[in-house]
Design a protein that fits this description.
The complex is a heterodimer of chains A (256) and B (237). By secondary structure, chain A is mainly alpha-helical. Chain A folds into 2 domains: 151 residues, no CATH class; 69 residues. Helices cover 70% and strands 5% of the residues of chain A. The longest helix of chain A is centred in the last third of the chain and has 32 residues. The chains are: A mainly alpha (256), B alpha/beta (237). The complex binds adenosine-5'-triphosphate and magnesium ion.
Chain lengths: 256, 237
C-alpha cells in the first residue's frame, strides 16, 4: 500500500543524483533568498517562480502532486493572508460600514499579503522538490553530516519509520470500527476517541519493545552510523549556481 | 558445556499475572529446541528472560556457564540473539542496511567489517537485493527475513526465534524452514506450528500456564496425541 507519508518519487534526474547535503544547502539558499525579497517586488517573484518551475521540470515532478502538498501549507498562511489587507492602510480600495465598524481594504496590505502568499507557495514547492528527489534516509544523513544534533536526526528517523506502522495500525482500527459502525454522530465521535487512545497505548507498548530490541543489539545511548556521502563536482556546481542565481535575483529585485 | 541452562525460573508480571512457574531446561551445543504451547503459556515471557529484558525474580539462567545478571548482560546478549515475533519491533532504521548494520556498529567493528557483516547476513536470508530499501516498503515475509539478518549480523552463538513462521504464507514458511536448516548451531524456536517443530527440532518442550509439562525427544512428543490435545496443540478427536 502506498502511504501518504511517502514523499520520495523514484527517478534518475539530475536532481535525484545530487548529494543530499548539496541539495539541502541549495534549497536553504533558495528559501532564504526568497524570504529576503522585498514586499511587492513582482519582478523578483517572477524570476523566482521561473527558477522553481525549472527545478520542478528538471526533477520530473508532476505539478498536481506539488499542488496537493500545498494544501498542508496553506492553512498556516491563509489566515494571515486573508486578514492583512484589512489591517494595513494605504490607498483605500474598498470600504464597508458594519454597525460602528469600518472594514477597509487598503492597497499596502494587499501587496503585503500577495508577497507572503507567493513566498509561502514558492518555498513549499522548493521543499517539495527536495523531498521528492531525496530519500528520507539520505536526507537525514545529509542533515546529520551538516552538523545537526544526532539526537534530533535519530528521533526524526524513528518518527518517519513508525509513522507508517502507526498509519497501518490506524487503518486496521478504523476497519475494525467500520465493520461494526452503523451510523450515529455521537457514537462516531466517541469511537474516534477510543481509537486515538488505543493507538496511543499501542504506540507506547511498541516503543518499549523497540527499545528492548535496540538494547539487545548493543545500544548504549550513542547512536553510531555509517556516513558514506561523497560530494562530486556536479554537487558543488549546483550549490554555486543556486547561490549566484538566488542572490542575484533577490538583489536585483531590491535595486531595480 | 551447556550453551543454556535455566533452573527454577518463575515470574509474575507486575499486574499480578503469573507467567512462569518453576521452569527448568537446558540446551546443548548443536541442539534445536522447539518450545510449543497454547496462547498465554508463557513462551514469549521465557524468551525475554533469556536475554535479560525481564528481571529474574526467582531461579537462575546460565549461558555457557555465565550466570545472567546485570554485570553479565552485555556479554550474554552477545551470545544469545533473539528474533522478535513482530519484525516492526526490530526494524527501526530508515533503511535495511542501517538496520542490519546497527548491531555490528555497536560491537565496534570497522567500516569494512560492518559492510561485510551486513552483506553476509543479508545474503544468508536471501535479501541482498534490499540493502537500500526502507523496511516499510517490504512485505511481512521480507521484513521477517531482514529481522533475522539483523540478529545474524552480530553472529550470536545461540539463535532464539519467537514464532518465526507466524503470518507467513506456506511458501514463506518452507523457505524459512530451509533457511533455518542451513544455519548451523544451537537454536530455540517458539512456535505453534508442529510441522515446523517436527522439521527443525531435536528436542521439544511443551509449556502450559507457565509450566513445563513435557520435555523430550521430538518424535516421542509430537506423536503423543493425547498430550498435544490436552494442551490445545492438537484437535481433540
Ligand atoms: N506485559 C505484560 N503484563 C502483564 N501480563 C502479561 C504481559 N505480557 C504477557 N502477560 C501475561 O503473561 C502470560 C504469558 O504470556 P506470554 O506472552 O509469555 O504467552 P505466550 O506463550 O507467548 O503466548 P502466545 O502464544 O499468545 O504468544 C499471559 O497470561 C499474558 O496475559
Ligand atoms: Mg508469544
Amino acid at each position: 500500500m502506498r502511504s501518504s507519508f511517502d514523499l520520495y518519487l523514484d527517478g534518475a534526474s539530475l536532481l535525484h543524483c545530487r548529494d543530499p547535503r548539496a541539495k539541502l544547502l541549495a534549497m536553504l539558499v533558495l528559501v532564504v533568498a526568497l524570504v529576503l525579497v522585498p514586499v511587492g517586488c513582482w519582478m523578483a517573484f517572477g524570476l523566482f517562480s521561473l527558477l522553481v518551475l525549472a527545478l520542478v521540470v528538471v526533477a520530473h515532478i508532476p505539478l498536481a502532486r506539488l499542488l496537493r502538498q500545498l494544501l498542508v501549507v496553506l492553512p498556516f498562511v491563509l489566515p494571515a493572508v486573508l486578514f492583512l489587507p484589512f489591517l494595513h492602510g494605504g490607498t483605500i480600495l474598498w470600504q464597508v460600514k458594519m454597525g460602528g465598524w469600518h472594514l477597509t481594504l487598503g492597497d499596502t496590505g494587499l501587496v503585503l499579503a500577495g508577497s507572503i502568499l507567493l513566498k509561502a507557495i514558492l518555498s513549499a514547492f522548493a521543499l517539495g522538490v527536495l523531498v521528492a528527489t531525496t530519500r528520507m534516509a539520505d536526507l537525514l544523513r545529509g542533515v546529520d553530516a551538516l552538523g545537526a544534533p544526532r539526537l534530533l536526526t535519530t528521533i526524526f528517523g524513528f518518527m518517519y519509520r513508525y509513522l507508517f506502522v502507526i498509519e497501518d495500525e490506524a487503518h486496521r482500527l478504523r476497519a475494525g470500527r467500520d465493520v461494526r459502525y452503523y451510523g450515529g454522530l455521537l457514537i462516531g465521535i466517541r469511537s474516534v476517541g477510543h481509537m486515538a487512545g488505543s493507538l496511543f497505548i499501542r504506540s507506547y507498548d511498541r516503543a518499549e519493545r523497540v527499545y528492548g530490541a535496540m538494547l539487545l543489539r548493543g545500544y548504549d545511548g550513542t547512536h553510531r552510523s555509517l556516513n558514506s556521502l561523497r560530494v562530486g563536482w556536479a554537487d558543488v556546481l549546483m550549490v554555486m549556481a543556486m547561490t549566484v542565481l538566488a542572490v542575484s535575483i533577490s538583489l536585483a529585485g531590491r535595486w531595480l | 558445556m551447556k550453551i543454556l541452562a535455566v533452573c527454577g525460573l518463575s515470574y509474575t508480571y507486575p499486574d499480578g499475572q503469573p507467567a512462569l512457574r518453576d521452569v527448568s531446561f537446558s540446551v546443548d551445543e548443536g541442539e534445536t529446541l522447539a518450545i510449543i504451547g497454547p496462547n498465554g503459556a508463557g513462551k514469549s515471557t521465557l524468551l525475554l528472560h533469556l536475554v535479560g529484558l525481564l528481571p529474574i525474580l526467582a531461579g537462575s539462567i546460565k549461558v555457557l556457564d555465565i550466570p545472567l545478571s546485570i554485570g553479565t548482560l552485555k556479554q550474554i546478549r552477545r551470545i544469545v540473539g533473539l528474533v522478535f515475533q513482530n519484525p516492526d519491533d526490530q526494524l527501526f532504521c530508515p533503511t535495511v542496511f542501517d538496520d542490519v548494520a546497527f548491531g555490528p556498529l555497536n560491537l565496534g567493528l570497522s567500516l569494512v567489517e560492518v559492510r561485510q557483516a551486513v552483506g553476509h547476513a543479508l545474503e544468508m536470508v536471501g535479501m541482498a537485493g534490499a540493502v537500500g530499501r526502507s523496511p516499510h516498503h517490504l512485505s511481512l515475509g521480507e521484513r521477517k527475513r531482514v529481522a533475522l539478518a539483523c540478529v545474524l549480523a552480530s553472529t550470536p552463538r545461540l539463535l532464539v526465534l519467537d514464532e518465526p513462521s507466524a503470518n507467513l504464507d506456506p511458501g514463506g514458511k518452507w523457505e524459512l524452514v530451509g533457511l533455518l536448516k542451513r544455519l548451523v548451531g544451537p537454536k530455540i524456536i517458539v512456535t505453534h506450528d508442529l510441522e515446523l517443530a517436527g522439521e527443525l527440532a531435536t528436542q521439544v518442550m511443551v509449556m502450559d500456564r507457565g509450566e513445563v509439562v513435557a520435555l523430550g525427544d521430538v518424535k516421542a512428543i509430537l506423536s503423543d496425541h493425547g498430550l498435544l490435545a490436552a494442551h490445545r496443540l492438537a484437535h481433540i478427536g
